[in-house]
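Build the 3D complex.
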Amino acid sequence: MTLQHYLALSAIIFSIGMTGVLVRRNLIVMFMSVELMLNAVNINLAAFSKYLNALGGQVFIVFIMAVAAAEAAVGLALIIALFKNRPTVNADELNTMNG
Amino acid sequence: MVENLVSIMPELLMTIFGLILIVIDVIAGKNSKSGVGYFGIFFIIVALLASIPVGGFKIFGFGGTLVWDMYSFAFFFVFAIAYILSTLGSVDYLRERGILKGEFYTIMFFSIIGMMFMVSATDLSVLYAGMETMAISMYILAGFEKGNLKSNESGLKYFIIGAFSSAIFLFGLSYIYGYTGSTKYVDIANMIQANGLNNFNIKLGMVMMLAGLAFKISAVPFHMWAPDVYTGAPTPATGFMTVAPKAAAMGAIVRFVWIALEPAAAQWQLFFSILAVLTMTYGNLVALAQNNVKRMLAYSAISHAGYMLIGVVSANELGYQSIALYTMIYGFMNIGAFTIISLLKNNGVIENERIESFAGLGKKYPVVSLAMLIFMFSLAGIPPLAGFMGKFYIFTAAVKSGIIWLAIIGVINSVIACYYYMRVTIFMYFKESEYDVDVNMKPASFIASMIAALFVIIIGVFPSFFMDLVKYMIV
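Done.
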């Protein structure tokens, strides 16, 4: 497999994730789509890192995974806080401010 | 080794103080959680004094991935101001809502560490780590009032769109990494210098990365989260969120375009000048139609990001200096205004922050109204006040580097902006009150708004002193 294969794979996964965020209305699914986008970035970085023979990209992946974990903790906590006030995870019902 | 530690000394100091703050939070009794905030103020002042740079030095650390210099210090100063003012201004609001917890101050404190890393980063990985430290703290602050549906909504929207934007940022970054083989600003600049921006991948990467950064400063067309998030978050948190993260992102953008994109100046100047025009115009035009003052200030925050972008576009030293000065001034006037809004209590049927709540406030609470008047005039850019001087320096920088058309659009926009700021003062002084409105002024928030008003006047009257200070810091 060449670098192009990896880049194509990552672009496809990124597009799926982006579509998911924009189209789906379930907050948890949207959140999962964001994770998908981040993993597409990870594939990209790993492929480039191997191709360039430089370790920087792989170190960056560790950064991204750590941050994604922290983000997941905060995001799920926010969803639970919302769920206690109004039992919904539908993004379209979040319209208390007419925005 | 020692150099590495010295280069992150301020951040290290802040981290240690932040951990101490957590311990203080545990020790403090249930009714004395405001003490955490006051200790935070003390700590941040100590850290600020300890990290005063002695005479224009630059300390690179960790293989040139970050640098502590005058520029980082200037922005640390801005963050410290934002922290001090929002801490003082938040105590009474949080106590009244029953959400006075130590976490509020601790999280704010830790978010500042992330912002400091953002500004001092000279490597994309440090920039990313700092940005996420800041952003995750901001999600928590936005959703801090757990029992309030608006606050939940604000936190969640900020979270989803923030995560989405950082994914876009990262995707762009991965292409830049693939093209240049490094995440260091200097290497990126060398690569662009050697090969130009002709490759499609690097163009895509740059645009996606800058778009990700533009999300953080709520530049149009990446602004759609800002009004709802700023409206729903607890008001003191909004004051902090409109100032500090914006300043940090501006600082990071300036350092990035300054070092990494220097060989491709024309391209990114075009990108940012389009953003600046859209941001100013959209923010101001939509703010005209708002009847909720908090929401109006949210849109005004968008338009102020546009003014700051003019400083980025002008790409000369004066531009960068005036961004630092402008964020400082903006911190004083915006956090002051949000402090006063947070204390407004409408006993009628409408929301507390509706513009009708301000009717007749001038007679009932003369001092508070005068402070609000000062903030509004300053935000509008009326001459003797600080906001005017901030805009003046930014437009001067734009004229100096020959982009006069952008300065003209900026001036036109600040004229449009006068309408909605003046509207608040007209309601305060020339309308009879329809509702029973109280201003719950307690000592802490009173001090916060008075300090802010005082500095708005002082900076407005003696701008050259502060400008010299900034000029000394940013060379």
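Residues 3-91 of chain A form a domain with the Helix Hairpins fold (CATH 1.10.287.3510).
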